[in-house]
Amino acid sequence: MNAIEVRGLRKDYGANTAVAGIDLHVAQGEVFALLGPNGAGKTTTVEILEGHRHRTSGEATVLGEDPGKAGRHWRSRIGIVLQTATDSAELTVAETVKHYAGYYPNPRSVTDVIDVCGLTEKAGARIRSLSGGQRRRVDVALGIVGNPELLFLDEPTTGFDPQARRQFWDLVRTLAADGTTIVLTTHYLDEAEALAGRLAVIADGRIVAEGTPATLGGRETAQATVTWTDDTGPHELRTDDPVAAVAALAGQNIGGLRVHQPTLEDVYLDLIGAAA
Ligand SMILES: Nc1ncnc2c1ncn2[C@@H]1O[C@H](COP(=O)(O)OP(=O)(O)OP(=O)(O)O)[C@@H](O)[C@H]1O
Questions:
Q1: Pairwise CA distance, residues 51 & 38, whole Å
Q2: 44 CA distance to ligand 1 centroid (A)?
Q3: Hey, which of 9, 12, 13, 49 would you mutate to test ligand 1's pocket, going by the most ligand atoms within 8 Å of its Cβ?
Q4: What's the CA-to-centroid distance between 49 and ligand 1, angstroms?
Q5: What is the three-class DSSP state of 63?
Q6: What per-residue confidence (pLDDT) applies to 276?
Q7: What region holds the ABC transporter domain (predicted)?
Q8: Cβ 50 vs Cβ 202: under 8 Å
Q9: What are the sequence ranges of the domains in the chain?
C-alpha cells in the first residue's frame, strides 16, 4: 500500500485556485520531494495531506485514512516540520523535546533524538539562546520525537550553514534507512537531488513533471554542451553524443575543454519557464 495516494486534489481560496487538480502517490519508505516556485501550491498540498487544511475536491489517502477526517491515532503516526519555527523560548532544548515526546504513544528516546539532530551540546541551553539553524534542528527534533511512519519536512534546511545542511541530509538518510516515509518540500535543487528517490515539480497548482532526479524532464536524454577554444576562437557544440565529440577533438591543439550535462537545476528552470 502507498503511504500517500492523491487524485484530482483541488483547493480554491475564493476565486484563486491554489491547487488545480493534482495526482500523486508516495510509496512507503520513499523520500519524495515537491519542488516549485513561491506560491506554486506546495504548502497547500502538504497541509491538506497533514490534515491541517480542507480540500475543495479530489481524493486523498494518507496512511490508509482520509486526512480530512482522521483522528488522534492517525496524527500520532505522522511527523511534521513546518516552515515556522517553534517558540517555547524559555525552555531548554531537552525540556522542549521531552515535553513533545509526552504527546505521543510511542516516542523515541529524547536523548537519541537530541543526539541524532546534533543538539547534544545544546541540550541544556534555552531555546531563545540558539542560532536560527540550531532552532531549526529543534523543529526537526520535535517532528521526529513521536517516531513517525511518515514525516513531512517543509523547507527544512532554510537558514542552515553548508555543514549543518550536510548533517541534516545524513539525518534524513538515517530516518529513511529506518523505513520512515519522507515528503520534503525544498527550494534547493541539490537537496532534492541528494535526498529524493522521486520528485515532482508543481507550478501554478499543477504537477508539470515527475520522475527521479536523474530522469526528471528528460534530463537523461537531454543534449550535452561541449565547449573548447582553439586558435580560431571559442567553440560550442550541442550534442547527443559528447563522448564522440570529445574523441573527435583528440590530438588537436585546443584548450578549455568542458562538457556540460544539464543539471537538475537547468531542467527545473526549463520546466518552470515552460509552465509560466
Ligand atoms: N489561507 C490562504 N488564503 C488565500 N490564499 C492562500 C492561502 N494560503 C495560500 N494561498 C494562495 O495559494 C497559492 C499557493 O500557496 P502555497 O503556500 O501553497 O505555495 P508554496 O508553493 O508553498 O509557496 P512557497 O514556496 O512560497 O512556500 C498562493 O497563490 C497563495 O497566495
A1: 22
A2: 6
A3: 13
A4: 15
A5: coil
A6: 61
A7: 4-229
A8: no
A9: 2-213, 218-275
